[in-house]
Amino acid sequence: xxxxxxxxxxxxxxKYEADPERYLCDDCEDGILDVDYDYSKIKRDxxxxxxxxxxxxxxxxxxxxxxxxxNTEKPKLAVGNTPIYDIQVLADELGIRKLIIKDDGLNxxxxxxxxxxxxxxxxxxxxxxxxxxxxxxxxxxSSLAGNIxxxxxxxxxxxxxxxxxxxxxxxxxxxxxxxxxxVKGTYEExxxxxxxxxxxxxxxxxxxxxxxxxxxxxxxxxIELAEQLNWQMPxxxxxxxxxxxxxxxxxxxxxxxxxxxxxxxxxxLLGVQAEGCAPITEAFKSNEKLKVSKxxxxxxxxxxxxxxxxxxxxxxxxxxxxxxINVSDQKILQMMKxxxxxxxxxxxxxxxxxxxxxxxxxADGIVxxxxxxxxVITGNGLKDIKNARKAAGNPIEVEPDLDKLxxxxxxxxxx
Length: 415
Hints:
Enzyme class: lyase
Largest sheet: 6 strands, mixed
Number of helices: 16
Order of helices and strands: EEEHHEHEHEHEHEHEHHEHEHHEHHEHH
CATH class of the domain at 84-111 and 214-392: Alpha Beta
Protein name: Threonine synthase
Cofactor: pyridoxal 5'-phosphate
Shape: globular
Strand order of the largest sheet: 4-5-13-10-11-12
CATH topology of the domain at 84-111 and 214-392: Rossmann fold
Distance between the termini: 63 Å
Binding site for pyridoxal 5'-phosphate: 139, 378
EC number: 4.2.3.1
C-alpha cells in the first residue's frame, strides 16, 4: 500500500495502522474508520496521462488510490468500466439541462457492489483468510459470491440474507457456490447473526458498513464517472441510499480527485431513500442521531433500518452542499418503466430510486432547471423480476388469429 498513510476514526480522529483486519475504532460507538492517503506522493507519481495509457479497464486502473498491495491477486471478474449515457429525452422530461445515466447494473454480477466485493477478496487474502462472509439484502451477497467464485475454488463465501431476499439474487448465490443462510427475520437480524458467526469462526468481514476498505472499492464509481466525463463534473450526482456506504464512497472518490487536481469542482450529492425506510434522510434533516426505522419498501437493496455508515453518508452530503429526499414505492415503480422505455436501461427498484428522487428534487426546486445531473443505476432489473412485472404490466394475450389481434391493436391504439 504504497500511498496509504493509515486509518482514522471519523468521530474521534484516533489513528490506526492500515491492518486489513482493522474495522472499527476501539474507543467510539459507530467509530467507522476512513483510509488516509499521501496525495503529494500520488501527484508526484501518477497523472491523467498515465491513467489514460493504462490498459486494464477494471477498477484496478485506479490502484494508486486504492488501499491494496500491488501484487495481491485480483478477482478475475471485469469489475468496473460500466457505460454512461447522455439521455436528453429524460433530461427534458425531468426538466433539467442535462442528464447522464451510469449503468452500474452492468457489472459482472449486475450491481455496483461488485466494486466493494472485489476489494474484499483482495483484503481477505492480505489478511490471510480463505473464507469471507457478509449479511446482505441480496446484491452485496451475490457480488461477494461471484467474485469469490472467480478465484477458482481457492476461497469460500458464507452469506446471510433475510428471508425476503428476491429469488433472482438467491439463485445467483447458489449458482456461485456460496454457503447461503436464509435468516427468518429482518436484515438487522441477519446482520447480527453474521457478525456473531464471523467472530466465532474468524472469517473475513465483507460487511461494507463496518469494513473501511470496501468504501474504497465503491468510490471507484465516481472516479470512473469523472474519467468518462473527461473530468468535467455535473452539478449534481445522485445515488439511492441504504446503509450509506455507496454515497460515502462516491464522495471519497470525488474528494481524492480534488486533492489531486483531476477535477476542479465537487458535485452536490443527492441521496435518495425509500419512504418506507429512510433513517438516514431523517437524521440528515433533523441533524440528530440516527433512529432505527422499519424496513417497508419494495427496494430491498436499500431497505436497511439500522444503517451503520450513516455518519459518513450524512457528512458526505453536507460537505458537498447536497441534499436528501425520499420517494414512494409507487414513484420507484413508475420510474423503472420510464427509464426502460426512454433509455433501454433496466434497473431494479433500488437501482432506479435515485432517478425517481431526482425527478422529485426538480419538482421541489432543490435541483434547478438549468443544472445538470448524473444518476448512478446501482443494480440491474433482472435481480427482481417480480417488481419489474409490477412496473411494466402484462403482455397482450391473444389467440393465433390476425383479425383478433387487429381488433385488440385498434382498441389499444397500437395501430
